[in-house]
Amino acid sequence: MSPPSTAAASRVPIPNAPPSPFEVTATARDAAARCGRLATAHGVVPTPMFMPVATQATVKGVTPAQLREIGAQIVLSNTYHLAVRPGAALIRELGGLHRFMGWDGPILTDSGGYQVFSLAALRKVTDEGVRFQSHVDGKPMFFSPEDVVNLQVDLGVDIIMVLDECVAAGASRADAERAARRTLDWARRSRRVEVTPGQLMFAIVQGGTFSDLRRQQAGELVGLDFPGYAVGGLSVGEDRATTMAMAEETVAALPTERSRYLMGVGLPEDLIRFVGMGYDLFDCVLPTRNGRNGMLFTSRGRLNIRLARYARDEQPADPECRCYTCRTFSCAYLRHLATTNEMLGAQLASVHNLHFYLQLMRDMQAVIARGAFTPWATERIARMTEEEA
Amino acid sequence: MSPPSTAAASRVPIPNAPPSPFEVTATARDAAARCGRLATAHGVVPTPMFMPVATQATVKGVTPAQLREIGAQIVLSNTYHLAVRPGAALIRELGGLHRFMGWDGPILTDSGGYQVFSLAALRKVTDEGVRFQSHVDGKPMFFSPEDVVNLQVDLGVDIIMVLDECVAAGASRADAERAARRTLDWARRSRRVEVTPGQLMFAIVQGGTFSDLRRQQAGELVGLDFPGYAVGGLSVGEDRATTMAMAEETVAALPTERSRYLMGVGLPEDLIRFVGMGYDLFDCVLPTRNGRNGMLFTSRGRLNIRLARYARDEQPADPECRCYTCRTFSCAYLRHLATTNEMLGAQLASVHNLHFYLQLMRDMQAVIARGAFTPWATERIARMTEEEA
């Protein structure tokens, strides 16, 4: 592991964040949906908000200038990936992750817990931490919960996620309990690590598919008084009804006066539902990954741009959309780029899909501020899901 | 083949170009280098100018908005590739190539002569034209010289290139003579095809590595009075001294009052030399292709960004450069993107390399207007070639 940065002088400077990082600014009268402001050292994030995923310090195919243009407010990167390559100490040396990737807005880094479990080879989890081999070169590595916080101190990010232990869908109650207990213990240890003033640390609720376990874990984490809470370990293979039930029961156990982040989800129609439950923050690779595969999200459903039906289509991918892609190019052109495997096709689809997700968040902010969320949500979900191309 | 568009009504509308498409605005007092203005239906192109290559109706990895930002004035696309996929008639239906690719500046299309010879399978060249199989799906196709002009009428481009026959480096005099004679005959036939008012047609000088043949062909083409002339069939495998000699002897046989375009070259230091000979227009895949491979052109030479020496380098790729990439990102970050195979690395390197080529053209325009080209050219070439990283 890279050595933790103990000397304050070697830290990436972080402007001070205000004392209360989150405030609720509006609440829907017919749902748990709310608007808020999450104050970070690199700016205030209006919520509900979606975070474009920049796993390796880049949102795939999208420049920081384009991210600004589509209204991104905060991006998510990944401690595991950056620790493996190019190394958190190197990024610290170069002035921190913001300067490194040319993004001066807020950054949240996932702790790498999920990646260790999904990517790394020969992993061994003990109460101490996780021992594993890098998925890039097989190099043996070890992360304690404290290491993971210190890596994020090195990166100089705005929001630090604690190391957590994920269990697979279908894990037994005993396994889910053990992982939840360990996640709680790690959260306690993480909370004691000194971070740079201005950095916020969020805890992660695990508990598998056992709602009482999740509620109990949420309660215990809340007792540690974190600036924000995330819900992890969902959408990892369990059925959809379980995802929705777990998400809803867990958010109810988290304090309304803290931001609540549902990790790694999901489709646009599901984000509307999760906002209706009271979640504030989301991240997901779908807009960029599906964009690279020629799938575009639109107000009328998903569209596979490779289909022959788009060969002569002069319309933009989504006539309701005001992104650069839809303002400039026809479906016929996007199809041409996809069928010729031109890189620009992936870029333009990623820009559109991210804009679509971010516009959806802006729409929800406006709707919630006006009061009634549910009729709007029902109508939007219906339009999105009625015709799939 | 797609049917030629005979009805004027089905043509892509082209604003009228002024009667004299090219004027020389300055000439160096110590070299044949000159500045000019090439008036096209979509705008005036200051020369000397480099044309970014958009073979399949996209400059690989670069949006039209980014092309504008780096100062691109004209782009080059390819009749062969577009005829194969998605088809020139389809692009005409969709309003022409400008609208299709979202670029409202001038477009020149290569005729596809070179691509038929380098890409297509089972090609058979006769005086009639070229019969070949598409490199995409093996579909049998036939291009007459008239077809190729009509395809470019369908595309609605600003500058139409006539179909030519290339010979390989090392071709015998007899082969070079036959190809030159055929190219001349095709140019004569092309000249008789009615194009949309405002479209310019350029002829192409062939002649292999035989300077008397090239001079003779240039003279005969000039007798047909084309709005502009290109020199083709160089940098196809012959040695460098031959390229330079052929380029210099051929340009001397072309009229000073017409724009002169050297096709498919080259390295930045060579472009300086070719401008010194009196060439006005260039195109080359090197800025984008090398960019995708992690090679960046700089004022101090070429740089392989994958090298370990750049891992901790906080400097931009070229401290003298003002492009988005150099204003925003360090060599360390560009290296990280290259080593992790992130698409953004190819994009940022392509933007930088194209900006480098275009800035070089702007620098030459300024130098020529001031009068003395040679001392500046000698110094720039020396700096570019002294240290190769």
Task: Please provide a written account of the structure.
- 2 copies of one chain form a homodimer.
- In chain A, helix 10 (268-277) runs antiparallel to helix 15.
- Chain A is α/β, with parallel strands linked by helices and 389 residues long.
- The first copy, chain A, starts with 21 loop residues before the first strand and ends with a helix.
- Chain A is built from 15 helices and 16 strands.
- Chain A has an 8-stranded parallel beta sheet with strand order 4-14-13-12-11-10-6-5. A 3-stranded antiparallel beta sheet of chain A has the order 1-2-3.
- The first copy, chain A, has helices spanning 64-69, 79-84, 88-93, 97-101, 113-118, 145-155, 173-191, 211-223, 240-252, 268-277, 286-292, 324-328, 331-339, 343-370, 374-386; strands at residues 22-27, 34-40, 43-47, 49-51, 75-78, 107-110, 121-125, 130-133, 140-143, 159-161, 200-205, 228-231, 259-262, 281-283, 295-298, 301-304.
Can I get a quick summary?
2 copies of one chain form a homodimer. Chain A has 389 residues and is of the alpha/beta class.
Q: Shape of chain A, please?
A: globular
How much is the radius of gyration of chain A in Å?
21 Å
What kind of oligomer do you see? homodimer
Stretches of chain A where pLDDT is under 50 for at least 5 consecutive residues are 1-9
Tags for this entry?
homodimer; 389 residues; alpha/beta; 3-stranded antiparallel sheet; 16 strands; globular; disordered N terminus
SSE diagram, text form:
2 copies of one chain form a homodimer.
Chain A: E1 22-27, E2 34-40, E3 43-47, E4 49-51, H1 64-69, E5 75-78, H2 79-84, H3 88-93, H4 97-101, E6 107-110, H5 113-118, E7 121-125, E8 130-133, E9 140-143, H6 145-155, E10 159-161, H7 173-191, E11 200-205, H8 211-223, E12 228-231, H9 240-252, E13 259-262, H10 268-277, E14 281-283, H11 286-292, E15 295-298, E16 301-304, H12 324-328, H13 331-339, H14 343-370, H15 374-386
Helix pairs in contact in A: 6-7, 7-8, 8-9, 10-15, 11-14, 13-14
